[in-house]
Amino acid sequence: MHPQPCGRCANCRAKGLPSTVSRELVIEAENYLKGASILIAPRHMLPAGIFPDYKRKIHPELLNEPGRSLCYYGDAGWGTLVRAGKYELNYFSNELVEAAALLICESWKPEPFPVWMTAVPSLRHPTLVRRFAERLSIRIGIPFKPVLVRLSDAPQQKTMQNSSMQARNVINTLSISDFVPKMPVLLVDDILDSGWTLTMAGWLLRTYGSGRIYPFTLAQATARNS
Q: Which of 40, 52, 62, 68 is the most exposed place for a label (fewest CB within 10 A)?
């Protein structure tokens, strides 16, 4: 049963507000509230016992630089496109390519700017992130080089109970398959969950002589980068 009209509000005076808004307006509001991008803070410490011959503190020369994510997974706007691209279409839209390029080139503007790009590979979705990164590289104007290779797909990070398990889950699943340019690189993945995949991929690239590593993901799984 509907309440009696009050005669004062916009709805009761036949000046009702729209029940839907455009995705563009939603994205504009999200960008305003979240500062147009979301920080990926680099991890500085390894869990105890991960590498017995290494100290827990990651050497500064092997650290990732602070990175950026476009959105939080599932948020209205970009988040819904990321979810649809990963789990329904197996393809990230041109809108996401353009949004990522604008964020990287006009909002973030890492310095020194990346000279090349690579992507975190997956055996579950072998073409998804790679095709996105290839299109993004063309849009930005830097070459894409698939130097990382996935040896095996570990269980998803969200199924791991703690940080140590998440880090161990990534180790030995990634390797290098080609020459690594000694220049700054944009390291691309779709969704940041624990942060360990980007950390270990960056550590591997730096170990093989890469320049600075700038991580970028389309989304973060939660508001807590852990």
A: 52
